[in-house]
Amino acid sequence: MQECFVYPGIDAQEGVCGGGARIVRTRIPVWLLEQARRLGTTEAELLPSYPNLRAEDLATAWAYARGHGAEMEREISENEAE
Fold first, then answer.
1. What separation in angstroms does the CA of 52 have from each of 8, 34, 71?
2. Residue 3: which pLDDT band, with cuts at 50, 70 and 90?
3. N or C: which end of the chain has fewer CB atoms below 10 A?
């Protein structure tokens, strides 16, 4: 897979975070943030946990997750199995 920019602020590159969607400037996968949100973690809790993360990054991650539900389900399931 080549590097791609699906949403501003989201990219994916083979060999980085398993090639999945991640927040630019970071190695934080979108699925990880979406899973945390589903488990009840608030944005106020996420931001200090990831110092390189900004509030606008979370808004971008949520938008990406909404538009890529099947991808999120697959990546969350794959990572829960590990």
1. 17, 17, 24
2. very low
3. C
Instruction: Answer whether 0.70 is exceeded by the pTM.
Output: yes
Enclosing domain of residue 75: 4-81
Length of the chain: 82
How many domains is the chain partitioned into structurally? Answer: 1
DSSP string for 18-78: GG--EETTS--BHHHHHHHHHTT--HHHHHHHSTT--HHHHHHHHHHHHHTHHHHHHHHHH
Q: What is the CATH number of the domain that holds 74?
A: 1.10.10.10
